[in-house]
Write a structure and sequence with these properties.
454 residues; mainly alpha; 3-stranded antiparallel beta sheet
């Protein structure tokens, strides 16, 4: 192929980098497209939504001199086509890492916001090397204990007593320790959720029975306690991003994420049902406890705080973000419970609470480089209705189809309320969610206001 001439005014990137100006166009585009795809790969494997992946890749494509960039993103794949230097390149990536790393999302968000035009591929690859090599913020046992504390807090919010909360603490801690151990060894997710569900529910039942034998507790097959023991298996992050992708009409990503959420939740639910059926436990409705009103409110606030903090740690969120998210979740969730006690409709209260959390997360994100999803998801996870989901599985097993459908509808309404509350908050605070802008339109990066990459 003949060497292509270029006009510096038409190709400012090449003018700023004369060392690559005479490189073969295909080779140069391979480097440019490769770093953009790598950026998207890191975001997707960290649990980011489809819109964030595509919009961030578009910013980087502009930064490295790509003239046009198109991307299709689902939960497990990225397909890109880049056009520059008089040629084009199409690349595919298959994602096999279905996890959550909020710290990495925030770091990549910071990098994306500090991009400017005429950046070198080598410089960006060095930054991505630093981000990719950073280890998890928390060790295995801190991560596992955070799971136990979060689930114990959720148990109290579901009217569990102190001994039930203690049993949940043990069961969820050991269950999360097992999950982290096997996931780091690339086990199949559905098998992992099944194994961890069996382990946690078995430990909870054994703990309650042991407490009954010792006389510390009058044995009670408590629904809230057993379901709380496996709450760490609820995939809150992909659940929320699936709903947000749906609102953005990114249907390939929304449907694949949603399918994953349903499948792993079903796997965990089957595990709990199998253990309770084998052990002969007939779970009963929760008996309300009676505490002075002010004490009850303070305990709800405290348990909401530690639950949101614990789930934030599970998402590998920096401790400052954990504190912010937990504070938001504690205030909003406590207010929601007061409203429900006063007779306000449950689903409407959840939707308003999610909307409020979205607004507060947007206000904090505007002053920091933290992403909204890192701030909002831990705060809304504690509102996900785990008990009705288990009741639906039990009713199906007993042949009570009508009762099962009623419980499933309850779950769907609450989850939908959470998703739409966050989505409406995003629309109110971000005009890009009101006016549909194709992500293949590369943004104009202001090269005059360059900021140091953090």
């Amino acid at each position: 192929m003949n060497e292509q001439k270029y006009n510096p005014e038409e190709h400012p990137f090449l003018a700023a980098h004369p060392d690559v100006a005479h490189m073969d166009p295909h080779q140069r585009l391979a480097q440019q497209s490769g770093v953009v795809l790598r950026f998207g790969r890191l975001l997707l494997s960290a649990g980011a939504s489809s819109y964030r992946v595509k919009s961030s890749m578009a910013r980087m494509a502009r930064a490295v001199g790509i003239e046009e960039h198109r991307a299709s993103v689902s939960f497990s794949d990225i397909a890109t086509s880049a056009y520059a230097n008089g040629t084009f390149r199409t690349e595919l990536y298959e994602n096999r890492t279905f996890g959550v790393n909020a710290a990495r999302i925030d770091e990549l968000k910071s990098l994306s916001h500090n991009l400017h035009r005429e950046m070198a591929v080598e410089e960006l690859n060095e930054e991505l090397d630093k981000i990719e090599k950073r280890p998890p913020l928390y060790g295995p046992w801190v991560n596992a204990l955070a799971s136990g504390i979060a689930c114990a807090g959720f148990c109290f919010l579901n009217k569990g007593g102190p001994w039930e909360c203690f049993a949940v603490l043990i069961a969820a801690t050991l269950g999360q320790a097992l999950r982290r151990f096997v996931l780091h060894r690339k086990f199949n997710h559905f098998a992992v959720w099944l194994l961890c569900g069996i382990l946690s529910s078995s430990i909870y039942i054994a703990s309650i029975e042991l407490l009954g034998i010792t006389g510390l507790l009058q044995t009670s097959a408590n629904q809230s306690g057993l379901v709380s023991a496996i709450l760490f298996l609820i995939p809150g992050f992909p659940m929320v991003t699936s709903l947000l992708d749906m609102v953005r009409m990114d249907f390939p990503s929304a449907l694949t994420r949603g399918t994953y959420v349903i499948a792993v939740m079903a796997s965990a639910g089957v595990a709990v049902w199998a253990v309770t059926y084998t052990s002969g436990w007939n779970l009963n409705a929760v008996t309300p406890y009676y505490l002075p009103w002010i004490v009850l409110i303070l305990l709800r606030f405290f348990c909401s705080f530690i639950a949101a903090w614990g789930f934030a740690i599970l998402f590998n969120t920096p401790w400052k973000v954990c504190a912010l998210s937990a504070t938001i979740g504690a205030f909003v969730n406590t207010s929601r419970t007061i409203a429900v006690d006063a007779g306000f409709p449950w689903h409407a209260a959840v939707g308003i609470a999610a909307f409020t959390i979205g607004l507060l997360a947007a206000a904090v994100a505007a002053k920091t480089y933290y992403s909204r999803v890192s701030l909002s998801v831990p705060a809304v996870v504690i509102m996900i209705p785990g008990v009705p989901f288990y009741r639906a599985l039990t009713a199906m097993n007993d042949g009570l189809t009508t009762a099962a459908i009623a419980q499933v509808v309850q779950v769907i309404f609450v989850i939908t309320a959470i998703g739409f509350g966050l989505a409406i908050a995003r629309m109110v605070t971000d005009t890009r969610w009101i006016v549909d802008t194709p992500t293949n339109q590369l943004p104009n990066l202001d090269s005059s206001s360059r900021r140091e990459i953090r």
